[in-house]
Every structure is written in structure tokens, then in C-alpha cells.
Amino acid sequence: MLHIGNEIKKVIEGNHLVKQEVAEQLGVSPTYLARMFNMEDMKCSSLDRVCKVIGLSAAHIFEQDGSVSVQNVSANTIIGDARTEVNVTPREMATLRELLEEKERTIQILMAQIGTVSGQHE
Predict the structure, then answer these.
(1) Using CA atoms, how far apart are residues 81 and 84, in angstroms rounded to an integer?
(2) To 5 degrees, how large is the angle CA 6–CA 12–CA 14?
(3) How many C-beta neighbours within 10 Å does residue 89 have?
(4) DSSP sequence for 64-115
(5) Lowest CB count within 10 Å: 12, 47, 70, 72, which one?
(6) Same domain, residue pair 72 and 57
(7) Is the pLDDT of residue 33 over 90?
(8) Would you say 81 and 42 are in contact if contact means Cβ atoms under 8 Å apart?
(9) Domain of 16: which CATH number?
(10) What does the alpha-carbon distance between residue 49 and residue 21 come to, in Å, rounded to a whole number?
(11) Which of 14-23, 54-63, 81-90 has the lowest mean pLDDT?
């Protein structure tokens, strides 16, 4: 499990959030927010409130080995309900990102070709 306070601080600073505004939205003083950065753990209700304010998934805090875990995914279909659990390692995540980037490049090339073809017909 990650150090909760450190992770909160990283997200706030990484997203260039104003600490004073975050403290106000949480209903705490800036001094107390600074103290939160040293907390290794906190009550679930406090963590939930902080995560909502800074846009962090509480699940991120509980990642153990760097893998991304999505649990209790469900979908309602005509046939019935579907449930699954997905675990993705950092290496698999990197591969997925590379594939996505390649698909994005392909889309850009195709869009450019469509634009060229459209321009010829006008």
C-alpha cells in the first residue's frame, strides 16, 4: 500500500492544484492539509473526501505491486448481467499504451488520406 499522505501530495502538486483551495474544499486549514501529507493512513471517510476533491481514485492508494486492478465490473445486457475482474501489470499496461499510440497514428494517417481524397472530389 502506498503512503497515503505522500500520494495525496504528489497528486496535488502534479496536477498543479492550489493547496489553499484544496484545503477550503475539504473544510480544513492549510496547516492541517500539510499535516495530512505526513499521514500513512487515515479514516476511509476522510480518504474518500480527499480523493473526490483532488480527482484521485481511492483504489490507487491500495495498489500493492504497481498492477492496476479493476474489480466488480458489471454490465447489464439483454442476455443477463456480466461480471469480471481485470488485473494488468505495469508491463502489460505499457504494451497496451504502445498499441493505443499505434492505433492513434493509424487513425491520423487515415484521416489525412480521407481529407486528401475528399479534396480531390470537390
Answers:
(1) 10
(2) 95
(3) 12
(4) SSS-EEEEEEEEE-SS-EEEEEEEE-HHHHHHHHHHHHHHHHHHHHHHHHHH
(5) 72
(6) no
(7) yes
(8) no
(9) 1.10.260.40
(10) 14
(11) 81-90
Residue with cell 474489480: 71
Read off the pLDDT of residues 43-75 as tens digits, 9 standing for 90 and up: 888 888 898 888 877 777 666 444 444 444 455
CA distances from 7 to 21, 56, 90, 96 (A): 18, 9, 18, 25
Residue with cell 496547516: 31
Q: Residue 15 and residue 115: Cα distance in Å, rounded?
A: 36
Split at pLDDT 50, 70, 90, the class of 119 is low
Residues 91 and 114 in one domain: yes
With vertex at residue 88, the alpha carbon angle to CA 106 and CA 4, rounded to the nearest 5 degrees, is 115
What is the rounded CA–CA span in Å between residue 84 and residue 67? 16
